[in-house]
Amino acid sequence: MDSTFKSPVDMLQHWVEQYGDNIYLRQPINGQYLDFSWREVQQKMQQIAGGLRHLGLQPGDKVAVLSKNCAEWFITDLALMHGGYISVPIYPTANADTIRYVLEHSEAKAIFIGKLDYWADQESGVGGDILRMAMPYDTMPAQYQWETLLNLGQPLIDTAAPTAEQTMTLIYTSGSTGKPKGAIQTFASYAWTCKAVVRDLKTDGEDRLLSYLPLAHITERVAIEGSSFYSGSRVAFVESLDSFVTDVQRAQPTVFFSVPRLWSLFQKNIIDKIGYRKLNFLLKVPIISGIVKKKIHQGLGLEHCHLLGSGSAPIPPSLIAWYHKIGLNISEAWGMTENSAYSIINHPFDARKIGTVGHAVEGCEIKMADTGELLVKSPGLMQGYYKQPEVSASSFDADGFFHTGDLCAIDSDGCVTITGRVKDNFKTSKGKYVAPVPIERKLAQDPHVELICVIGSGLPHPIALVQLSEGAALQPREEVRTSLKATLDSINPNLESHETVDAIVVVSEAWDVDNDVLTPTLKIKRHVLEAKFSAKVDGLRGGKVRWECEIE
């Protein structure tokens, strides 16, 4: 075993010894911070772990966590590690069926329930004899409340430290198809990845992080929670969606990760406030340009950031280029649940590589299969999928490289461009295969487009389904139609004849997690849209732009 291995519990002890009374976690309650020092977090970790022992839970038992991000999420996670339990995070937006499936499949003995927006709709998924424990927020009924747990039994102090090969967590993929799969991550794979993030992004005890993307997702679990364990960075949380902007400004993060949809929303708010033409003009005036950029950075609460990142889903290169123009450099990264979310990143930011997801990080190997599929290998790889040995075995090649399912191109500098998904390619009624993602990337250059999905399985030609950006939805329809038509007409001549897009259809219903079009990580479920629209759009021809109501 690696004698230098340090688990998050070991690192917590390190920071307690170094900076015990310094603030570690900042939880906003009614607009005011409730602060937790490193020492207080350790004490609560020991108390919660002791409470679980008192309730009869044994090392190796699975314990689920269903909550939005909060300080108690970190404390619970540490307590589960400390007690030798295997954590099973569940997305706070998961519906009752998904919750029930994950709890049953993982054989979880207990569940921590915390901040939730719609717990009444989710409660039926938390059934059976499972033990419920509640964090100190308005949430579904539970047998044990947080304060009770803290005083139940003796604090767990003298216990075996987690070992490198020990299973730390089962992380269920949000999966755009089929049932979620439980990726088995050990303490070794998690620790390696967290330390790699800290090494590359150069975070330390002076950094301020903000935790708001779902902790049930591996990216937040590694990049924010995990990196704080190994860097000593302070972490603040967001109280609610309504207070988000205020919470960001108050936290003054020095590192900020987000998803494409939020970067797009930030852009819309900036343009709405200043005006597109006026902003472009001001950015060309030397002295004024600097003042405008500074005001934008301050308005977003990102003026102290030395690193901005985007992940979880593809971000349009045009959006990164736009932010680069206003002085905010967003490093796009690529990762998966199966490789602890950190393998490839455009960092240090290189504007010449916008459109790629960057290069492999130190310690990670990548290669392209004959099929064009991206294969990765790193110490951050999972052990396999829980209870699915055959799927696990087929996910790795003979050399231990993981089959990502992503199609790619790798340039002479080793930078990777994701060109699609192996399973996304479809065959039209003419018997020709179409790769939709490169077409989507081209169409997404139109500023009116927020989300796009090209479908066409069994159709004569592909059809592009478009969700308009919020700003575009307020513009005159003919103005938007003209722009989308011009974009389509500029792209179709450069496509193979069987790839040309017959029409763009502007959808009327917003795509989101609630209507099952998006995964919790905001990836589009192509099969859901194909099932809904294929018959409806069959027959559209001639490169038209139509609203959904026009094709009923």
Describe this structure in words.
This protein has 552 residues and is an alpha/beta fold. It has three domains: 8-227, 3-Layer(aba) Sandwich (Rossmann fold); 255-303 and 306-421, ANL, N-terminal domain (Rossmann fold), CATH 3.40.50; 426-550, ANL, C-terminal domain (GMP Synthetase, Chain A, domain 3), CATH 3.30.300.30. The chain is built from 18 helices and 27 strands. A five-stranded parallel sheet has the order 4-3-5-6-7, with helices on both faces. The chain has a five-stranded mixed sheet with strand order 12-13-14-15-16. Helix 2 (38-54) crosses helix 3 (71-82) and helix 7 (187-201) crosses helix 8 (218-231). The longest helix is centred in the N-terminal third of the chain and has 17 residues, at 38-54. The radius of gyration is 24 Å and the shape is globular. It starts with 7 loop residues before the first helix and ends in a 5-residue tail after the last strand.
